[in-house]
Write a structure and sequence with these properties.
Length: 231
């Protein structure tokens, strides 16, 4: 890799995480994650992930790994962002809700894949920082709200996609109710330490199709319909 003299470190390789996504897509062990979606790869190549982490971690930001973003939270592994984004099967016309804004990175990727993007975060400092980095990098169209996302965002529903980026103990009924007909919910469900990534599609007024996608490890979804706050 070339050395960036000004920054005093090797240049990050912008495609490492995405290349691994390409190679590892076949590792989805269960269900049908949908066809390889070039729009997702394109979007991820366009969003500068290093801007969404602290400067000290920028050099690591193109590795395929989660990174700390403060408040005991993380920016998700690029591979997981790709899998989840792809599982939403977006064509650009959709209204999407993200639960767990965190750094704002996933929301920026969604902004390139969907028409309208709403994102909920419960920690004020993270919501503030995400707002700034999204505005500074041309993603002002993302709407962020500071709130308990375990009950969704009723005023903006229905959603063609809901993506939950924290691990839930169960699927909140509110998410199912707020999906449009044909809408997809992508959510990690399990215990506090490990979960199974699920895709739930609303196939009728009160009919849902469930697909198990792969094992994963997310920070807990904390709130009314999620885990209790840990002290
Ligand atoms: N999508 C984020 C990104 O791209 O950086 C990563 C999200 S991080 C793995 C999980 C986030 O979910 C944390 O920022 C956490 O504060 C948030 N979270 C947990 N419970 C929540 C809730 N009930 N409502 C909204 N956000 C929540």
């Amino acid at each position: 890799r070339r050395y960036d003299r000004q920054a005093g470190r090797p240049r990050p390789h912008p495609v490492v995480g995405v290349e691994r996504v390409r190679r590892q897509r076949h590792q989805l062990r269960h269900g049908d994650a949908g066809p390889a979606d070039p729009r997702v790869l394109d979007a991820m190549l366009k969003v500068p992930r290093h801007k969404f982490v602290e400067e000290a971690l920028a050099g690591k930001s193109y590795q395929d790994a989660p990174l700390p973003i403060g408040e005991k939270q993380t920016i998700s592994q690029p591979y997981m962002v790709a899998v989840m984004s792809e599982a939403l099967m977006l064509d650009g016309s959709e209204t999407v809700l993200e639960v767990g804004t965190g750094s704002g990175y996933q929301a920026a990727v969604l902004a390139l894949l969907a028409d309208r993007v709403f994102s909920l975060e419960r920690i004020p400092s993270l919501a503030r920082r995400a707002r700034k980095v999204l505005d500074d990098n041309g993603f002002s169209k993302v709407n962020i709200r500071l709130a308990d996302g375990t009950v969704g965002w009723q005023d903006m529903a229905p959603f063609d996609g809901i993506i939950v980026t924290a691990g839930a103990p169960k699927v909140p009924q509110e998410y199912l109710d707020q999906l449009s007909l044909g809408g997809r919910l992508i959510i990690p469900v399990g215990d506090r330490e490990s979960q199974v990534l699920m895709r739930i599609t609303r196939v009728g007024e009160a009919e849902y199709k469930e697909e198990k996608m792969l094992g994963c490890r997310f920070v807990p979804l904390i709130g009314n319909q999620g885990w209790k706050q840990e002290n």
